[in-house]
Amino acid sequence: MKIIYTFLSLMFVGLAGFSQTKTDEKPSETKLQFYGYIKYEGIFDTHESTTSRYSDLYFYPVKKGEGTENTQLDMLSLNSRLGVKLTGMNALGANVLGVVEGDFFGTGESYKNMFRLRHAYMKLQWDKAALTMGQFWHPMFGPDVFPRVLSFGAAAVYNPLNRAPQIRLDYNIIPDLRLTLAALEHGYHFSKGPEGLAEGAQRNSAKPDVQFQLLYGQKTAFATGITAGYMWLEPRESNPDGSINENQLGTYNANWFARFKTGPLTLQTKVSYGQNMSQFVMLGGYGRLLEDIGTNNFNYTPMKVYSAWFEAFYEINKPWQVGVFAGISGNLGTEKEVDPTNIYARSKNIKEVMRISPRISYSVQKLKFGLEYLYDLAAYGEEGTQDEYNVYDETTDAVNHRVLFTAAYTF
Fold first, then answer.
1. Are the beta carbons of 30 and 87 closer than 8 angstroms?
2. Is the dihedral of CA 3, 172, 84, 102 positive or negative?
3. 251 strand-pairing partners
4. Measuring CA to CA, which residue among 405, 371, 400 is closest to residue 58?
5. 220: domain CATH number?
6. How far apart are CA 393 and CA 117, in angstroms?
7. Does residue 1 carry a pLDDT above 90?
8. Burial of 15 (0-12, 13-18, 19+ CB in 10 A)
9. Is 20 contained in some domain?
């Protein structure tokens, strides 16, 4: 627990250093600004795939088998978005911003087309620092560098995707160097785990996900940074036989990212590595230790997962833009020997996935039209060829070709 107390103390000591209550502050007028977009998507696939919400959030093709070479068509509008931004208030010497934003994606397959909270946070902005409290992007996602693909989910599986309730401190050490400290509790982006118990695993640990980030560079021309963090899970409070099992699993995550812009050309990349990583809508998970088979007081071992992506996009002129995304992600096996019958993961039998997706878009006033092609490959392990760390020696590839057309009216 010492690391958590130290982490939170640094946040609040830093906050005390630059926030001062001003007794002569006058009430200010709060201004409301509504924003969002109405979106249409037409999707065509050549192979059955692992997806979510009517195939809008795409992961990878399913393993080859009878009936999997099945063409599919979807037309969707469920990620149309609505938000409200509150500005104009000054308090504690800071400008105060409030944001509430949602869409109709739902928080699970059973809630498709229902309103879902994306962001709900307040931000106090001082000259050199900002304090954010509420639901916002996880530092591993990083709104400074993320894929600008047309498909929904910002290239999830390859790029970490997570929004979570948090308290976050951003501090500009110098004008071009920002330090971020954050403590988070995962909401609907929670880790994989035992059926019916996964959602409460972090809450049961009584510890937040703690994250650190350094960002160097300017918002427009060049930026690079690193993120690192640690999270605890307590998958079970008791075993099926009623005996107590409060063993916890600690996992780390890290990434490096960069963006370079010159004229109409933008290049950006991100490399991520960590344990578990399923809370970021990526491959990964964990399982019971093989050495604990037959015991009730069992512990866990996490999978090691990597991902890397690169993106380039170019503005031909003001209305036209072309771009291409390429990504790869893979499973490097568990840290220790794992019980193969008790692995909780996103597709535990996938060894590697990859994607290439070129795109073109056209914008006129507040309308944007886009066309994107996605080539997705998943290498599935052949049963019986995996070792004690769940690493497969033999794989079979499955491929899907997706064509996506989008139209959006922004307001």
1. yes
2. negative
3. 231
4. 400
5. 2.40.160.10
6. 42
7. no
8. middle
9. no
Inside any domain, residue 211: yes
For 233-256, the pLDDT digits (tens) are 999 888 777 778 889 999 999 999
Question: What is the C-alpha separation between 231 and 20, in angstroms, rounded?
Answer: 33
Residue 76's domain comprises 2-15+30-410
Structural domain tally of the chain? 1
Q: Compute the distance between CA of residue 72 and CA of residue 43 in angstroms, rounded to an integer.
A: 8
> Which H or E run includes 204?
helix 201-205
Q: Is the dihedral of CA 336, 164, 134, 253 positive or negative?
A: positive
Q: Helix, strand, or coil here: 218?
A: coil
Amino acid at site 147: P
293-318 pLDDT, tens digit each: 888 888 999 999 999 999 999 999 88
Q: Which has the closest alpha carbon to 148: 283, 272, 261?
A: 261
Residue 22, in any domain of the structure = no
Segment holding 14, helix H or strand E: helix 2-18
Query: b/e for 346-359, b at 16 or more Cβ within 10 A?
Result: bbbbbbbbbbebeb
Q: How far apart are CA 152 and CA 112, in angstroms?
A: 15
CB neighbours of 85 closer than 8 A, spacing ≥ 6?
A: 32, 33, 34, 35, 97, 98, 99
**Tokens at 222, concatenated:** 């060049």
> What are the pLDDT digits (tens) for 113-136?
999 999 999 999 999 999 999 999
How many residues comprise the chain? 411
Phi, psi dihedrals of residue 247, rounded to the nearest 5°: -65, 140
pTM for the full predicted model? 0.91
